[in-house]
Every structure is written in C-alpha cells, then in structure tokens.
Specification:
This protein is of the alpha/beta class. The chain has one domain: Rossmann fold, CATH 3.40.50. The chain contains seven helices and ten strands. Helix 1 packs across helix 6 and helix 3 runs parallel beside helix 5. The longest helix is centred in the middle third of the chain and has 16 residues. The protein is globular and about 50 Å long. 41% of the residues are buried.
Amino acid sequence: MSSQNFDLVVFGASGETGTHVLNQAVDRGLTVLGLDHTVPDRAEDDGAVHRQVDVLEDDLTEHLKGHPRVVSALGLGFSPAAMTDPPPLYSKGTANIVAAMTETGASRLCVISAAFVEKDERLPAWFRASVIPALSAILEEMREMEDQLENSRLDWTAVRPGWLLEKPRSGSYEVQDRRLPADVFRTRNADLAHFLLDAVVTDDWVRAKPSLGRTENAFDESPAALSREVAAMVGIEL
C-alpha cells in the first residue's frame, strides 16, 4: 500500500455525487483518494488515486494516515429492498469512518444526509404523501448517522440536499440551516459536490446541518419527472 498522503479522501467516490466531488477536487488541485466498494473503470483517467474498500467490513485507518479531510458521499441505490431494509451504510458505515478518523487524528468530515430527515410542511404535498413515507427506513438510517456525528468529537458537517437532480453545476444554489430555503425542492448533484468541497476545506458549517438547493423548471419539480427518475433507478423505461 502506498504511503502517499492525500489532501482529501472521498468515500463513495464513484457514485453520482461522489464522482462530482472527486472531479471538482482534482480540478481545484487537491490530491484525492477515492474509496469505493468497486473501483470504477475510469479510475486511471480522472487524476485521483482509487482503492477498493468495504466501508462496513474493512479497516479504514490505513487510508486516513496523514490526517486528510474526508467527504462521505455514501449512498444507497434506489430499490424496493433498499427502501424496506436498507444496508447500514449511513449508520454503521459512518460509525466506522468516525472511528478510523478518531484513531488516526483526522478531524474534518462532511457527509451527505437529506433535507427530508426533518418534517417540512413547505415541501410539495404529493411528495410528502408518497415519497417520504417510502423512504422512511433510509431516512431513519440518516437520522442515526446524524446522531452519531453529534456524539463524536469530529469537526463534522451533515449536508442536507433536496431531491437530487443530475444537471450541470449551477453556481446559484441557496443554503439555509437545517431546512431547504423557501420554495426550493431539488438539489443538483454538482452543486452539492461544490458545497461539500467548500465546507470540507474550511471551518464553515462545522457541527451544523446546512441544507441547499435551487428552484428548477416546472417539469423537473413535477411528479412526472420524479416518476421517470425513480423508474430509471430501478431499471424501468417509462
């Protein structure tokens, strides 16, 4: 194993948001280690170092030597099984990251949570009635993750995006403590990555739960768009 030290370690680096985090970090001139359950095919071409890691089972301390800053972009694939009985990526996975950081002396951690872990009557009624109940088990995992962070000594930030949208970085998102800004429902993955990077390299939003997003066009905020995206996640063509 290489003894190279890194500016940033990204867990879940090949996921939709993790890929944006990794690429934007490299563009900023940071040395980046991407950790994934499976190393992506493109790993040789993106300017980062990649290693295969099982965050639930492996010893993570060897990857955190040198006290790097850490972004956890861990996330679950959308499926009926994940919704009813999600693997403990957020709870146990984050607990393992916190333990490894504590052991190695690393202290700055940013994780992805969700704006929907707290009740918000301003969200669209159709979304509150249909999607949030379906995500209850995953949201409970996120609540447990946030509780673990609050009980740790790390300089953590739990970022709470809205429903994620795969579009280019806007550069015009809004940020508010704990809840989404008024009339905001969606968050672009690339905007989320940008905020995560800004937060992890600074002391902004330490031990806080910022929420971010922006108002998108009417179709992207419609039930039809959400249905199409969820169908694509589970491999159904509408």
